[in-house]
Design goal:
The complex is a heterodimer of chains A (111) and B (114).
Chain A lengths: L3 E4 L2 E5 L4 E7 L6 E7 L6 E7 L4 E4 L2 E6 L4 E6 L8 E8 L5 E3 L3 E6 L1
Parallel strand pairs in A: 2-11
Antiparallel strand pairs in A: 1-3, 3-8, 4-5, 4-9, 6-7, 7-8, 9-10, 9-11
Chain B lengths: L4 E3 L2 E4 L5 E6 L6 E7 L6 E7 L2 E5 L6 E5 L5 E5 L8 E8 L9 E2 L3 E5 L1
Parallel strand pairs in B: 2-11
Antiparallel strand pairs in B: 1-3, 3-8, 4-5, 4-9, 5-6, 7-8, 9-10, 9-11
Classes of the chains: A mainly beta (111), B mainly beta (114).
Chain lengths: 111, 114
């Protein structure tokens, strides 16, 4: 089955700096890659996603890149703010509509 | 428009017991997926229901079963509870059977098995 690895597990940045979280996947048939933000006591919330036919997608301060050949995708957050502090999960979806999540990155933005 | 709700928020059971968790979908959504999230881990896909039929299942034993009702609310049932079943159980609703329609997650039910 699919194996999604996520790095780093924890990340601390100064407010205003950029944060990058990286994920790799194993199933070359995976075709959809969402990123979720999970705050304490809440369920994950979709923040951005990308399909396998696209290399990059941007939404204001958040961007995702996908390298299908290398089977890795990354989340980029620019101009970080304290409210960006949360746990971030990457995920991949295979052709059976099953999602596989990474182990999460705890992001702390220091004011 | 109401979001995804789950009940109960917390639950304590003992090994061998059975548990039922409930989920109400976001208004208009006909697909519900269930996930198990162990402490410090990412969610693991249990199964998905689309219009009352199971539409995909992850690597979980048959003692994990589910139902979806005509109003698209859903139940997750776990029989013969084991200590390792202690986790946060999340449901997510979406529109349609294609999973890259956005999933909206509920806040989860925290299950502790003693």
């Amino acid at each position: 089955g699919e194996n999604v690895e996520q790095h780093p597990s924890t990340l601390s940045v100064q407010e205003g700096d950029s944060a990058v979280i990286k994920c790799t996947y194993s199933d070359s048939a995976s075709n959809y890659f969402p990123w979720y933000k999970q705050e304490l006591g809440k369920g994950p919330q979709l923040i951005i996603d990308i399909r396998s036919n696209v290399g990059e997608k941007k939404d204001q301060r958040i961007a995702v890149t996908l390298n299908k050949t290398a089977k890795h995708f990354s989340l980029h957050i620019t101009e970080t703010q304290p409210e960006d502090s949360a746990v971030y999960f990457c995920a991949s979806m295979n052709t059976g509509n099953q999602f596989y999540f990474g182990t999460g990155t705890s992001l702390t933005v220091i004011p | 428009e109401t979001g995804v709700t789950q009940s109960p928020t917390h639950l304590i059971k003992t090994r061998g017991q059975q548990v039922t968790l409930r989920c109400s979908s976001q208004s208009g959504h006909n697909t519900v997926s269930w996930y198990q999230q162990a402490l410090g881990q990412g969610p693991q896909f249990i199964f998905q229901y689309y219009r009352e039929e199971e539409n995909g299942r992850g690597n979980f034993p048959p003692r994990f079963s589910g139902l979806q009702f005509p109003n698209y609310s859903s139940e997750l049932n776990v029989n013969a509870l084991e200590l390792d079943d202690s986790a946060l159980y999340l449901c997510a609703s979406s529109l349609g059977s294609i999973s890259y329609n956005e999933q909206f997650f509920g806040p989860g039910t925290r299950l502790t098995v003693l």
